[in-house]
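pasting Thrombospondin-type laminin G domain and EAR repeat-containing protein for the record, 573 residues
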Amino acid sequence: ANKIFTRCLYFPFEFSLFLTFKQYVVPRREECLFSLFQDTTMSSLISVGFSKDRVVFRYKGQRYRFKIISMAAEVVTVTRDCRQRRRRPLATAFPDLLPVVNTSFSIGRCKQSSSVFQGLLKSVILVPGRDASVHACPPEMDLAQGLGNIVRTFPGLWTVCSRSSLTPFYTTPVMCEWTDVGNIAFDVYARKLKVCVNGVWREVKVSPDKRKLDYLLPHQLLDTGQGVLDIEVFEIPGEGTFAAYASAGLQTSVQSRSNIYHWADSKLTLYQTLPTQSAQAWKFFSIRNQFFLAVANYGINPSIPSNSTIFKWNKVRKKFHKYQDIVTYTARDVEAFEINGHSYLAVANHAQGDNNQIDSIVYKWSSRERQFLEHQRLLTIGAYDWTHFTVDGYHFLAVANAFSGLTTLVFSVLYFWQNSSWIQFQTLEVDTLNTAYCSVTSLHFTINNDHYLAVANAYNYGSQNYQEIDSYRTNSTIYKLDRDKRVFTRYQSICTNSAVDWEYLHVGDDHYLIVSNAQNGGAGDRLLTFVPSHYLHTLPNADFEVIKDGSDIYLLYANAKNAKSEVLRVKFL
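structre below
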């Protein structure tokens, strides 16, 4: 026994014993399977055996017959095949300190006079701790109620999926050992359901997608009326999938309009037009059971403020109508997010006249006023894009700063939510080889448990490029979260041609990034936008979005130069 109890020479006063066996014939006599006995006297201290259909536990000469063994001080519990469970008090309490010096374990026979165990024995496992059967056995459920929605997140914790504000998942590592076989857990980092199999967490795949992306084929040519800078794909329960196109055309005499399309029968059809002023970006969000669509308007004159608008979905008329105007200055983007049950809206103000260092504003939804009110101002430098994301429950907000008025060599900033406000967390690192030139957008995505931030850099202007060589040919950068350093570090730089947007696509086991190139070294005509391993000949585009319709995948791209945008269909191998 001292070879097993190397750190403590006392038997645990709370322990569980797992026995996995098979008997072909019911034993006529008691057969002993496991025992701990004194080397000098050969007397048995603890033993477990079988008598017909009963489990027999012996301690201090007392015999307890049950129909796995669990000891907890004064009570012994037996669970057989995870179904039958019995508890009995001990006549003599199990000691806190039972020395194992000069003791030995015997497997298959307790003493010379007892019968040898006859059958197949797979495992005899001793575990310290009270009633470990809860780790190995599934819960007792009423089959008449169906499968239900109970999911075991990890050993010892069961939770019912609900809208409770208390999350059932911890961010600390969850061990998968032999005692956890069959346990199901949800990996909050990989966002996958996993099951413990022989000490290893394995992903649970339901109808796994084994397809491979071959190429993208033209599917639909869309007449948007004007050039488009952004597409927002969203879904309204019971109504289907929609796509909002941000028309960027400036019209001084009449008000410009942006189109909302409805996806049906594998194509987009015009559903509604909404008034905008050189729309730059759309964002769909919900507050409780209400649905909203916010647009960032650049406006007509950069020197004067304009209104960016929030539209609300009318459930009766099934249309969007104007709900609230927000005063903005050459707004480039709007981002919606929720923290602790409160809804927020961040607007990226690009410039006020010739001044690019102005405040971008975060608004908070007021339940009393039933509208968004100013919550916090953040100084930005030619802000172009906001991106909100979470890591292990912590909230981050990234701003892509593009232009100071003199140079595009500016830092983009990552903010961290603390004490109901945003504080600066990190500036995305730059150096002379991979300079952040005019960052216009950022995209957060995860692969396995790793968090990435892709930044699109569009233009190289300023003293660092006074000869104006390859102004549109820049390095766009992908950053990866270093959990040890707790910062995002450069992971990869990719050469792009005035990149203005990234889109992430996951097909089967493969991961793709699509970059929207707005230029081709300054030349017009059609240009190259690449997916890793693929190059697409497209018109100058500003945004890519994904629509998944059953087993089919479609890509929508926004043509910034004319009124012809396109829908592409993914072709699989």
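The longest strand covers residues 213-223.
The mean pLDDT is 79.
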